[in-house]
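Message: I would value a second opinion on how I read folds in token form. Give me a protein, with the fold worked out from its sequence. Write it directly below this note and I will take it from there.
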Amino acid sequence: MSEFEEVCYTREGAIEKAIEMEKESFDVYRRAYEMVEDKRARELVKELALEELEHKYTLEKAFLEEEIALHEAGMEEGPSMDLTVLLQIKPLDGDSSSQDVMIYAIHEEKRSVDFYGKMAQACVGAPMEAMFRRLQQDEGKHLASLEELYESIYMPEM
């Protein structure tokens, strides 16, 4: 059974699910920011946390507005390196290394990409489809950024 339900929610239900996802992602990055030691990784998780807050704010405003105004995704990132297949996730705790935090964040972004992709697929033709596609694209960019940073820090020989 899939982690995500394959149904198209009402507009309000879809927004609530998306807000919940953004809150969870922000919490991951906030914890990661407190734990990570590498300066580049710390700056990236800070940037990603702030982007998740922007998404959440935009989604909360959508309850009061007809249009959901998400920013343009901008430059396309390359495809994911699928590091989630290679890297095993572990729960974060006080003994987690910077590498553990990066792996956890990569898995979190992959989860978000999958979530928004399934939501968009379930809502094909509905007004919420475009919002979920845009969020999927944004989270895909986050995933690519994390994977590139992980590779540069922990897999430099590749």
User: Anything to note?
Assistant: The helical segments are 11-35, 39-62, 83-86, 98-122, 128-154.
